[in-house]
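TASK: fixed-backbone design
INPUT:
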């Protein structure tokens, strides 16, 4: 077998990273596979997760090949965020090792079974535990324990975490975040390697899903879930019942001046206030990237009520948690 050198591009940002990992899917076995980071200058949170995860997948798939990286010493930001350790290279911080700050949350990897076990030990719904984890992240990024931005960010993170725990069947998931006050922008990225949206939603007999695009478009509609659907007997009840509104509400919050990206299987979809894009993605599991415009953030209940009044045509109603009513009296 021969040696293969892969030149990492200078900018690993949204579209560049998707294009880069497409090529990794076609990578064949070699005696040695060397990722050369000489040119890397810029990498964003979504790319930290996506690229490290895909390199790790390549390592698992091509076990007979020796993987190595070179010319990475200048990549201090990526190293601090846990990028290199995430795909098995002993350089920089491990995922979750850096404490984070008011401007970033490094790569963290959560084990889904541990979360469920912790919830059982505490005798609470896993959603309650995820609420506390989302709140902790929001407190770090916003440097506050209250306020509109803190509440909206907590809500969005909780709903995304819930989707992974309740639907993905993934053993673990990774996330990271960045807050740029000068740009009025909060970005949050999360990736799981579970069954993907299409397989998850196939439990809903009211949906006719032919491909990954159908699944994503269905998931972004209100009252769409693989666990709760029209005509279902013995629907889950209670404050934390999954009503299928989490992705819908979160995507609509992000669209107000920010953006929302979701990918599963071979289909990726980006939407904002003024545009949408379709992307071909080589993805096992589900990936999301949330971008919030902090100038457009209002009171959480007000935002959710506006979305409820203007955009929801379904006859079913969101659960109390989906409407941000858990702390309302």
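OUTPUT:
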């Amino acid at each position: 077998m021969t040696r293969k050198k892969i030149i990492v591009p200078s900018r690993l940002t949204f579209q560049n990273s998707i294009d880069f990992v497409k090529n990794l899917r076609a990578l064949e076995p070699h005696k040695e596979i060397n990722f050369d980071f000489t040119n890397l200058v810029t990498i964003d949170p979504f790319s930290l997760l996506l690229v490290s995860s895909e390199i790790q997948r390549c390592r698992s798939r091509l076990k007979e090949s020796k993987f190595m990286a070179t010319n990475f010493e200048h990549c201090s930001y990526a190293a601090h965020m846990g990028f290199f350790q995430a795909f098995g290279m002993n350089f920089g911080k491990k995922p979750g090792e850096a404490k984070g700050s008011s401007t970033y949350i490094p790569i963290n990897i959560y084990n889904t079974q541990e979360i469920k076990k912790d919830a059982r030990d505490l005798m609470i719904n896993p959603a309650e535990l995820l609420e506390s984890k989302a709140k902790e992240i929001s407190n770090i990024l916003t440097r506050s324990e209250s306020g509109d931005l803190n509440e909206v960010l907590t809500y969005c993170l909780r709903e995304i975490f819930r989707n992974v725990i309740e639907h993905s069947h993934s053993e673990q998931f990774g996330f990271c975040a960045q807050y740029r006050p000068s740009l009025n922008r909060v970005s949050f990225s999360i990736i799981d390697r579970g069954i993907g949206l299409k397989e998850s939603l196939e439990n809903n007999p009211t949906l006719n899903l032919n491909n990954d695009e159908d699944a994503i478009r269905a998931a972004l509609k209100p009252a769409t879930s693989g666990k709760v659907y029209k005509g279902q007997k013995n629907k889950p009840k209670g404050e934390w019942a999954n009503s299928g509104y989490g992705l819908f509400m979160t995507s609509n919050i992000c669209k107000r001046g920010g953006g929302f990206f979701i990918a599963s299987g071979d289909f990726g979809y980006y939407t904002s206030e003024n545009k949408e894009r379709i992307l071909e993605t080589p993805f096992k599991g589900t990936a999301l990237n949330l971008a919030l415009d902090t100038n457009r953030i209002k009171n959480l209940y007000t935002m959710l009520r506006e979305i409820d009044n203007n955009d929801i045509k379904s006859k079913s109603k969101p659960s109390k948690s989906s409407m941000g009513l858990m702390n309302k009296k």
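COMMENT: The two ends are 67 Å apart (CA to CA).
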